[in-house]
Amino acid sequence: MKILLINIICFLCLKAEAQTSALKLADSLYQLGNYQKAIELYQNSSSTSAVTYQKIAQAYQATGNIGLAIKNYEKAIQLDQKLIIAKSNLGKLYYQTSKFQLADSLFKELTYQFPENPDFYYRLALAKDQLNDSTAVLNFQKVLQIDKNHQQALYAIAKHKYSDKEYEEVEKIGEQALSSYPENTKMISLLGKNAIAQKNILLAKSRFEQLLKLNKKTVFTHFNLGTCYFILKEYKKAYQQFVEVIQLEKNNQQALLYAGKSLNELKRYSEAEEFLKLAVLLADQPVDDYYTNYAISLQNQKKFKLAIDNFKIALEEYSQNYRAQYELAICVDNYYKDLQTKINYYELFLRKFENEKKAKYYVYLAKNRLSDLHVSNHLTKN
C-alpha cells in the first residue's frame, strides 16, 4: 500500500509538472507572437482555471478573433470576479463591437470598485457618449479630476463644447491640453476648426500650418489651410494646398473647384479651366459655383460662346447667382453684335439684382455699360 501510494503521488507530481511545463511553453509562445499554437496548448491543458481562459481570450484578441476573445473573457470572469484585467479588456471589446450597453454596465462596475482609476471613467464616458447619455460629459470631467492632463478626456470635452458652440471654452481646454502635450495633433485640428468657427482666419491658418510642421499631411489639413489662404487672398499658397489635396484624393470636387478658383485669381486661366472642367464632370449634383468659375476661366480666354453656355447652366442650377448673371451679360456683350441683345441682358441683370447689396459693385458696372449701349443704340437709329 505504501509503495502504491508513493507511485500515485509521484505520478500526480509528474503530471502536475508536465502541466506546468505546458502552460509555461504556452506563455512563451504567446510572448513570441505564436498565438494559435499558444491557444492550442492552453486548451489542451487539463486546467480550466479563470486565468487560463483569460490567457486564451488575450491570444484570440491578439489574432483579431474578437468573438472568441469575448467568449473566453466572459468564461474567465464567471469563474473569478476578481480578474480586473479581463473585465477591462472585455469592456473595451464590448465597446469595439458596438455593445455599448454591456460596456457601460461593466465599466460602471469597475468605477465603483476602483474610484481612483481615470481610465475606467474614460471608458464609461465613451460608452455613455455612444448611448447619447448626457452624463457622459460628467464622467469625462471625473477623469480630469483624477488626471488633469488626460489628453483623451480633454479632447472629448473640447469636442462637446465645440458642438455646443462654446468656442471660448474650447480654446481654454485646448490650451490646457497643449501645455502638457504640445504635439497633440487631434487637439490642434479641433482648435483650427474652432478658429474658423470664430472667423479668426489668421489663427486658423497658423494652427493648420502647425499641423503640417508636425507631419499631419492629410486632406483635412491641406484643404483647410488652402481655404484659409484663399480667404486671405494668398492665392498661390492656396492653390498649392488644394493640389496637395488632389494628390491625396484625386476626385475631391471641392479641391478641384478651389484650385481652379485660385488659378483664376492668379490669371492663369487655361490652367484653371482644366481643374474646373474636372470639377464640373465629377459633380454628382452640379452646383452653380462649379459652372460659374468654369465659365469665368473660359471667358478670360475669350471662349465666349462656351462661357455663355456654362453661365446659363449655372443660372439653371441657381437663378439668384448674381455673379453668373452679370458675367453672362459681359459675355453676350463681347460675343454678339446686336446692340439690343446686349441691352436686354444687362437690363435682365438689373431687374433681378439692382437691390441686392452683395451685387452693388456689379450693378454699378452694369449701369455704366448700359448707359453707353443706350447712347450707341440711339445714334445707330438716327
UniProtKB/TrEMBL annotation:
<keyword id="KW-0732">Signal</keyword>
<dbReference type="InterPro" id="IPR019734">
    <property type="entry name" value="TPR_rpt"/>
</dbReference>
<protein>
    <submittedName>
        <fullName>Anaphase-promoting complex, cyclosome, subunit 3</fullName>
    </submittedName>
</protein>
<keyword id="KW-0802">TPR repeat</keyword>
<feature type="repeat" description="TPR">
    <location>
        <begin position="50"/>
        <end position="83"/>
    </location>
</feature>
<dbReference type="InterPro" id="IPR051685">
    <property type="entry name" value="Ycf3/AcsC/BcsC/TPR_MFPF"/>
</dbReference>
<dbReference type="Pfam" id="PF12895">
    <property type="entry name" value="ANAPC3"/>
</dbReference>
<feature type="repeat" description="TPR">
    <location>
        <begin position="219"/>
        <end position="252"/>
    </location>
</feature>
<dbReference type="InterPro" id="IPR011990">
    <property type="entry name" value="TPR-like_helical_dom_sf"/>
</dbReference>
<feature type="signal peptide">
    <location>
        <begin position="1"/>
        <end position="18"/>
    </location>
</feature>
<dbReference type="Pfam" id="PF13414">
    <property type="entry name" value="TPR_11"/>
</dbReference>
<keyword id="KW-0677">Repeat</keyword>
<dbReference type="Pfam" id="PF13174">
    <property type="entry name" value="TPR_6"/>
</dbReference>
